[in-house]
Amino acid sequence: MFSSRRTIAFFAVFGVGAIVAAAVFAFTASNTVPETKAGEGSEQITGYVVSSVHYTLNATDPSKIDAVAFQLDTAAPSGSTIRARLEPAGTWYVCTNTGAAVSCTTTSPQAVLSSSTQLTVAAAQ
Questions:
Q1: CB-count exposure of residue 123 (10 Å: 0-12, 13-18, 19+)
Q2: Can you tell me the distance from the alpha carbon of 124 to that of 118, in angstroms, rounded to the nearest whole number?
Q3: Minimal CA–CA distance to 125: which of 71, 79, 93?
């Protein structure tokens, strides 16, 4: 038979354990974790087709090119980066687009006809 002293000790230990378990549960129950996403995927990288290229010559000195404009086969999304250069190892000029129509100012540094031998376009979303 159990003595009342043993019974009291048992319930005291059980009571302390219950209090500790409740405190631990209360601390873990208060955590909040926001929803997050993770994943992996792949898609083919394709290029644009450039057409309707037009060069704007300088009004005072027509041996200089002030701008180049062209069309892309599809509109580049807003925020896309589009650059063009007129020499194989020349300056990359910043371009802007409205839909598929692209325009690049080529005055800084000034592009010149004599060294403009190759139009290269780089475009990325």
A1: middle
A2: 20
A3: 79
Q: 73 and 107 share a domain?
A: yes
Please give the tally of structural domains in the chain.
2
Domain-embedded: residue 76: yes
User: To the nearest whole percent, how much of the chain has pLDDT over 90?
Assistant: 62
Quote the domain boundaries for residue 120. 50-124
Residue count (the chain): 125
Q: Cis ω on the peptide bond leading into residue 34 (within 30° of 0)?
A: no
Q: What angle do CA 86, 88, 94 make, to 5 degrees?
A: 45
Model confidence band, residue 32 (pLDDT cutoffs 50, 70, 90): confident
| Residue 5 resides in a domain | yes
Between CA 57 and CA 111 the distance in angstroms is 10
Residues 8 and 67 in one domain: no
- φ and ψ at residue 103, rounded to 5 degrees: -135, 135
Under 8 Å between Cβ of 72 and 97: yes
